[in-house]
Write a structure and sequence with these properties.
76% of the residues lie in helices and 0% in strands. By secondary structure, the chain is mainly α. Helix 1 runs antiparallel to helix 3. It is elongated, with a radius of gyration of 17 Å. Bound molecules: hydroxy diiron-OXO moiety (OFO). Hydroxy diiron-OXO moiety binds at residues 17, 20, 50, 53, 94, 97, 123, 126-127, 130. Keywords: Cytoplasm, Iron, Iron storage, Metal-binding, Oxidoreductase. It comes from Pseudopedobacter saltans (strain ATCC 51119 / DSM 12145 / JCM 21818 / CCUG 39354 / LMG 10337 / NBRC 100064 / NCIMB 13643).
């Protein structure tokens, strides 16, 4: 059974995953408005992925006899001004989320809660992949010219990100 402290900490992670989903929704909406339909679709899909993470953590808390409490989700930061800022926000979001997950791993070790430790390894692996992809996307934006990218190169980037079926 989960300790009270672990139950509270995992609950906070449920809110953080919901927040991550909101950040991706905000970015997806910005991209759509900027005419970047491929990037928008990609980010929307990832928003759903974050909700899957949220639901899995909820399920785990319940399976271990804990109680899930749904909290308010903070408002995401203002919309980006260009594709580079968009993917910088993605990377920042993923790094912050990884840090929160590492704290959960620390707590599970301190408590010798090996079931939770084992459960969290899936999230650690997921974050590694997501940070890797976020860095790749940022590299692509930089190759396209970063903040100074021409319309033509942003057009190509939008097609590339939207069309390659990249999975976060
Ligand atoms: Fe972006 O990943 Fe959830 O945890």
């Amino acid at each position: 059974r989960l300790s009270q402290e672990m139950s509270i900490a995992l609950n906070s992670q449920v809110t953080l995953e919901a927040f991550a989903a909101q950040v991706y929704l905000m970015l997806s909406s910005w991209a759509d408005d900027a005419g970047l339909d491929g990037i928008s679709a990609f980010l929307l899909k990832h928003s759903q992925e974050e909700r899957v993470h949220m639901a899995k953590i909820m399920e785990y808390i319940q399976e271990r006899g804990g109680k899930v409490t749904i909290e308010a989700i903070p408002k995401p930061e203002p919309e980006p001004k260009n594709a580079q800022e968009c993917f910088e926000t993605v990377l920042k979001q993923e790094i912050e989320n990884s840090e929160a997950i590492y704290k959960l791993v620390d707590l599970s070790m301190a408590e010798k809660d090996w079931a939770t430790f084992n459960f969290l390894q899936w999230l650690v692996a997921e974050q590694r992949e997501e940070e890797k992809l976020a860095l790749t996307l940022l590299d692509k934006v930089n190759l396209a010219g970063g903040k100074e990218a021409s319309y033509a190169s942003i057009y190509e980037l939008n097609k590339d990100i939207g069309g390659t079926g990249q999975e976060f």
